[in-house]
Recover the amino acids of this structure.
């Protein structure tokens, strides 16, 4: 049976493990070294395991971060460990607890068990804490041996912000003792205040509307930080589950960490939400940031990646000033748990801390059984063997799930009522992956790990607002997948080997044909090379030719919406940035539907070309599906030297 160490016992057990940090070594009487450690966006990654791929991994896991924590504690005389939110949802272990096992009064959530084992001193709420509803959240938090704070989620409004009744305490003051350089102990009062993006009211409308409201982050900070100081805090730490965005303040900012750091009374800021690392070169030369010093608006700051990829660390040299403390100097860094090598292999930099694994092993084993068990059924086979030549069920289910999700997200926004389209591409479609690199889920049960086969990447959902003309050009860009074919050709090669399958977007919600006799309008990098080319013909919406001036919402992912692939209509047209991965949306969609029937609706085809045939390659295992493609005549045409099956298609 695992033993949960208290904070004092944990520190004592690791004393002398490593050499002291220079701040500890240099501290004089009335000076103390305090180490502030951060985790953020853990998303229930306790064990170093990829539940979607059903295999171990060295890039994630609180059990690995725990070893860094032990080392840090051993290097310093004084330390605290804080979490910055998004701990309750985000992988199949979280879904298993929420959807399968449930939380009754008195139950322990595995991420809370792991955090208790490691001895966290405090946390804040992230946006994903609300994904399973308020009742689930509060039952999970009840097991925490540490305070959880959030200043801008309100149950009842007061005459002023200070008089609001918040869902959890807006802040807390930790009474601790610091040991100075002479070995003497002194009291210190550490204020913790937390914030979450107010966009939770959109992202989790069905759980939150009528139950809570979200305040502006900066307004809440201005209301409560002076109160924390009035209550005697020596230093104030902002737990900002809000990314590093614009330096200029705006109302209801999602990524408000820079202007938040500028508020008087806040001494340092722990950030998250963006799944990035600060300090790092990602944030070089941005207003309000100094990556060399690790500061945000001149104050120490840190962001520790995601899923336990890093542990954030702020080192403070403090000096006792009268009855309080002031910061003399500071350092910030984010320590990784793994390293990616030049050959793209991964080297683990730390081992697991076994007590964290032991405390949650039963939950881990139950999660493995869960991911290997069906979460729904499919009435159509989900395969990608012909995804590059015909409308395809493996792409269809992604489009269906994205449409289902964005329809909910657009409710109550200025974009409600606009037609919603969905763009999705096949990821496993042979190519460099070889002749077995295809999705193939038969009719029947769908397990969560099958979803990884449908959607390989941890992208997050986005929506863009575009015109009909941009829809057409989006499809023109996608049609670069194909070579130009001379009418009357026999066995012309169809697929452009230099065009990646993940850039072959199919847009669901419209109907269209691709005229292969036309050249591609765009080159492989997205530059216009044939401005008069029109491969996309007979493009219709709701049975009528699409209006170039009409407006549409397209559900897609963060890569595409942000300009990945250089598609027209992306980069600056984003109207919704979802907190959920596309993969999680597919899982939720299957769970809600029970049985999905993502039969291809053949909304796109090749335009007919008399007396013309083309050759394309696919996986040999796809032969059993060759006769299921509506309106297409395919013939097997042997195999090539790489082991791909060749098929002839008459246009």
């Amino acid at each position: 049976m695992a033993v949960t160490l208290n904070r004092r016992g944990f520190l004592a057990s690791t004393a002398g493990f490593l050499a002291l940090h220079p701040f500890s070594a240099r501290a004089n009487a009335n000076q103390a070294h305090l180490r502030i450690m951060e985790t953020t966006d853990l998303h229930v990654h306790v064990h170093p395991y990829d539940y979607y791929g059903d295999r171990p991994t060295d890039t994630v896991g609180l059990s690995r971060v725990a070893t860094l924590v032990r080392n840090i504690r051993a290097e310093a005389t004084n330390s605290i460990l804080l979490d910055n939110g998004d701990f309750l949802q985000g992988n199949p272990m979280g879904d298993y607890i929420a959807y399968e096992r449930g939380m009754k009064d008195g139950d322990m959530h595995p991420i809370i068990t792991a955090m208790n084992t490691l001895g966290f001193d405090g946390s804040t709420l992230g946006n994903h804490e609300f994904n399973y509803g308020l009742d689930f959240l509060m039952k999970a938090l009840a097991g925490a041996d540490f305070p959880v704070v959030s200043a801008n989620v309100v149950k009842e409004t007061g005459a002023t912000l200070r008089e609001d009744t918040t869902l959890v305490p807006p802040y807390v003051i930790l009474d601790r003792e610091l040991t100075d350089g002479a070995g003497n102990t002194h009291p210190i009062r550490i204020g913790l205040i937390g914030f979450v993006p107010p966009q939770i009211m959109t992202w989790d409308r069905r759980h939150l509307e009528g139950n809570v409201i979200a305040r502006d982050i900066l307004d809440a900070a201005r209301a409560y930080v002076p109160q924390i100081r009035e209550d005697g805090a020596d230093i104030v730490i902002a737990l900002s589950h809000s990314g590093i965005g614009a330096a200029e303040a705006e109302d209801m900012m999602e990524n408000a960490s820079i202007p938040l750091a500028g508020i008087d009374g806040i001494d340092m800021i722990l950030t998250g939400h963006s799944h990035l690392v600060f300090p790092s070169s990602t944030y070089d030369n941005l207003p309000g940031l100094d990556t060399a010093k690790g500061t945000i608006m001149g104050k120490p700051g840190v962001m520790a990646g995601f899923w336990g990829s890093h542990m954030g660390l702020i080192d403070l040299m403090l000096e006792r000033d009268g009855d309080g403390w002031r910061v003399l100097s500071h350092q910030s860094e984010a320590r990784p748990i793994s390293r990616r090598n030049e050959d793209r292999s991964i080297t683990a930099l730390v081992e697991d801390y076994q007590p964290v694994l032991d405390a949650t092993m039963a939950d881990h084993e139950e999660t493995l059984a869960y991911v290997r068990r069906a979460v729904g059924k499919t009435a159509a086979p989900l395969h990608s063997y012909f995804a590059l030549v015909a409308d395809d069920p493996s792409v269809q289910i992604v489009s269906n799930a994205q449409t289902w999700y964005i329809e909910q997200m657009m409710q109550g926004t200025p974009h409600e009522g606009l037609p919603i389209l969905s763009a999705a591409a096949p990821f496993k479609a042979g190519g460099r992956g070889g002749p077995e690199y295809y999705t193939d889920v038969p009719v029947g049960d769908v397990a969560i790990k099958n979803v990884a086969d449908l959607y390989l990447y941890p992208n997050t959902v986005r929506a863009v607002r575009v015109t009909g003309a941009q829809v057409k050009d989006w499809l023109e860009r996608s049609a670069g997948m194909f070579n130009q074919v001379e009418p009357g050709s026999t066995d012309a090669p169809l697929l452009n080997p230099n065009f990646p399958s993940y850039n072959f977007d199919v847009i669901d919600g419209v109907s269209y044909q691709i005229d292969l006799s036309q050249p591609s309008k765009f080159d492989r990098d997205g530059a216009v090379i044939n401005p008069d080319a029109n491969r996309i013909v007979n493009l219709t919406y709701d049975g009528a030719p699409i209006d170039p001036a009409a407006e549409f919402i397209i559900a897609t992912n963060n890569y595409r919406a942000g300009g990945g692939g250089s598609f027209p209509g992306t980069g600056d047209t984003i109207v919704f940035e979802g907190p959920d991965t596309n993969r999680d949306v597919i899982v939720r969609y299957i769970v809600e539907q029970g049985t999905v029937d993502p039969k291809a609706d053949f909304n796109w085809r090749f335009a007919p070309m008399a007396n013309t045939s083309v050759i394309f390659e696919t996986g040999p295992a796809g032969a059993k599906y060759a006769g299921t493609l509506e309106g297409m005549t395919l013939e097997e045409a042997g195999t090539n030297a790489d082991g791909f099956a060749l098929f002839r298609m008459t246009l």
